[in-house]
Write a structure and sequence with these properties.
With 167 residues, the chain is an alpha+beta fold. It has 2 domains: 5-34; 41-164, Rieske Iron-sulfur Protein (3-layer Sandwich), CATH 2.102.10. Helices cover 21% and strands 31% of the residues. The chain has 3 helices and 11 strands. It has helices at residues 3-15, 20-33, 159-166, and strands at residues 39-42, 45-49, 59-63, 66-72, 84-87, 90-96, 107-109, 114-117, 122-125, 145-148, 151-154. Strands 1-2-11-10 form a 4-stranded antiparallel β-sheet. A 4-stranded antiparallel β-sheet has the order 3-4-6-5, with no helix packed on it. Strands 7-8-9 form a 3-stranded antiparallel β-sheet. A hairpin with a 2-residue loop joins β10 (145-148) and β11. It is globular, with a radius of gyration of 15 Å. The structure holds FE2/S2 (inorganic) cluster.
Length: 167
């Protein structure tokens, strides 16, 4: 399957069941934030090379048909327990980029380092935690992952993932 086909599938998923106005905004948000990293997919696992990530710049990969964002947080950022983990002293965060309100794909604003869901105005911070007073009821889900050097294997439960679940 080509990248373009995969992207169209995502857009179909993102647009299904949302109102027309929200759909256009959502489409725009997806285009702005879609920035694939080098990744290899095999048997339900997606292996992503994190070495090229730039601070504060969101990247999105596909894992089992879902968009997963990965962010290297800006230096000086506060560590959010249960959401962020460290590799070589730098903070990273990962989540399934699907709004926990009604399933749209929130866009990431690099200026504010936060997510905005265009469908109903939901907001999440850089670590994927929902902002109280906006529609999403909980943080974006964290996919199982394993860190192996500067590689992330999505679909496998490693020590960093276990630690986040315990926090
Ligand atoms: S689907 Fe995201 S705010 Fe409603």
């Amino acid at each position: 399957m080509s990248d373009n086909v995969k992207r169209r599938d995502f857009l179909g998923m993102a647009l299904g069941g949302v109102a027309a106005v929200g759909a256009v905004a959502s489409l725009y948000a997806v285009k702005r934030t879609w920035d694939p990293l080098p990744s290899v997919v095999s048997a339900g696992f997606t292996t992503v090379d994190l070495s090229g990530l730039q601070e504060g710049h969101l990247s999105t990969v596909e894992w089992r048909g879902k968009p997963v964002y990965i962010l290297k947080k800006q230096s000086g950022s506060q560590k959010v327990e249960g959401r962020d983990f460290e590799i070589n002293g730098a903070l990273y965060t990962v989540g399934i980029q699907i709004c926990t309100h009604l399933g749209c794909i929130p866009g990431f604003d690099e200026k504010t380092q936060g997510f905005l869901c265009a469908c109903h105005g939901g907001r999440f911070n850089a670590s994927g935690v929902n902002q109280p007073g906006t529609p999403p009821p909980r943080p974006m889900e964290i996919p199982p992952f394993k860190i192996d050097g500067m590689k992330m294997v999505l679909g496998e439960e490693g020590a960093e993932y276990q630690a986040l679940k315990k926090a």
